[in-house]
Amino acid sequence: MFKKMCLSLLMISGVCVEAKDLDFKLDYRATGGKLMGKMTNSSLLSITSINNEPVVIKNLIVNRGNSCEATKKVEPKLGDKFKKEKLFDHELKYSQQIFYRLNCKPNQLLEVKIITDKGEYYHKFSQ
Fold first, then answer.
1. Over the stretch 7-21, which tens digit does the pLDDT of each residue have?
2. N vs C: which end of the chain shows fewer Cβ within 10 Å?
3. What is the dihedral sign for C-alpha 46, 71, 123, 116?
């Protein structure tokens, strides 16, 4: 009986903890171009928090880790574009956005799993 109750719950250190309902708005677009005569393929993924409580982005797993990965956190403001920042562990409050550069073509982007301090969020893109 206890195992059945924990199926929809997050298991932490052997204790059943209720997983929060997470919600994000995800959008992506092509950002590739020519670099030294060679075409580069990349996409820009934007993640907007629609969560009432702040969440910390701990990791981002794209296409189950098989064909695409987040390579850089990107700043939308021109003055911040070259600022060096860690890839993850950023807090998002309601309506705040974060941008990641992905090393794949937009048509390769199938699904994203966002791992946060409050649980996991899964999104499948329609092709």
1. 334 443 333 334 558
2. N
3. negative
